[in-house]
Design a protein that fits this description.
- With about 220 residues, the protein is mainly α.
- It has a single domain, classed as Arp2/3 complex 21 kDa subunit ARPC3.
- The chain is built from seven helices and two strands; from the N terminus they run ααββααααα.
- The protein has a two-stranded antiparallel sheet with strand order 1-2.
- The longest helix is centred in the last third of the chain and has 33 residues.
- The radius of gyration is 17 Å and the shape is globular.
Length: about 220
C-alpha cells in the first residue's frame, strides 16, 4: 500500500502532505494534553509491533505487494490521535531508512494509512460498539473496523494514483481495493484476537472509548 516516488503528481502529493501535516500537528497538541505517563511505553510497544507487521509483504500479481496496516490496533489501544502519530513515525522510518514508500509520497502514505486508517476505523468501531453492546460489540467492531480501514486506505491510495494520471482509476481502484479486501480479513482476525486477549488479561491497556459499551459508561471522547 506504500506509494513510491514518481507515482503521484505534484498537486496530489503536495495537497496530501498539507492535509497530513495539519492532522499530525493537531495530533501532537491533543496527545500532549491528554496522554498519560503509562501510555508512553505502550505507544512504543504498539509502534514496534506494527512496524514489524508492516515489513511482512504479501506478493500480488504483476510484482506488487500488500501488507497489514495496524492503524486500528493502535487506535484500540490509545485512541485515534496517538495512533496517527504512531503511524506517522512508522511510515517516516520506513521511507527514510528502508525506501519503503517514497519521500515525496510520504504525506500521502501518512494520510492513507495513518489518518484515514485511524479515524475511519475509530468511527466504524464506535458505531458498531453502540449497536452491539458488551464484549460482543467491541469484538465485532474491531473486525469490521480493521477490514474497513484497510480497504478504505487502499481505495484512497488508488484515488491519488488515478488523479495523478499514473494509472487510470478504473484499473487502480479494483486492483488495490480488491487485494486489500482479502488482506483486511487477515488484519481483522489479528486485531480482534489481540483485543480479545487484552480485554481478558489487561483491560486497562485498552482505550476507554474502545472498551465494551454500556449505558452507564456511554461516550468516550476522541
Amino acid at each position: 500500500m506504500h506509494i513510491p516516488d514518481g507515482f503521484l503528481s505534484a498537486p496530489v502529493w503536495i495537497a496530501s502532505a498539507a492535509v497530513s501535516a495539519g492532522v499530525v500537528g493537531l495530533s501532537v497538541r491533543k496527545v500532549g494534553k491528554s496522554l498519560e505517563e503509562k501510555q508512553v511505553p505502550l505507544m512504543g510497544v504498539a509502534g514496534a509491533f506494527i512496524f514489524a507487521a508492516q515489513m511482512v509483504n504479501f506478493p500480488i500479481a504483476a510484482g506488487t505487494s500488500g501488507h497489514l496496516s495496524g492503524a486500528v490496533l493502535a487506535t484500540l489501544l490509545l485512541g485515534p490521535w496517538p495512533a496517527t502519530l504512531i503511524m506517522t513515525a512508522i511510515l517516516s522510518v520506513q521511507a527514510l531508512l528502508f525506501q519503503d514508500g517514497g519521500i515525496t509520497a510520504l504525506g500521502a502514505n501518512i494520510l492513507n494509512m495513518g489518518v484515514v486508517g485511524s479515524f475511519a476505523g475509530f468511527l466504524v468501531f464506535s458505531v458498531i460498539r453502540r449497536v452491539f453492546k458488551g464484549k460482543k460489540g467491541v469484538l465485532i467492531g474491531a473486525f469490521v473496523a480493521s477490514w474497513t480501514a484497510v480497504v478504505l486506505s487502499a481505495a484512497v491510495a488508488a484515488g491519488e494514483i488515478g488523479l495523478s494520471g499514473t494509472v487510470p482509476l478504473r484499473l487502480a481502484l479494483p486492483a488495490m481495493a480488491g487485494v486489500h479486501v482479502l488482506i483486511g480479513l487477515g488484519e481483522g482476525i489479528i486485531t480482534t484476537a489481540a483485543l480479545a486477549f487484552l480485554l481478558k488479561v489487561r483491560k486497562d491497556l485498552v482505550y476507554p472509548a474502545c472498551q465494551p459499551y454500556t449505558a452507564a459508561a456511554a461516550g468516550g471522547a476522541v
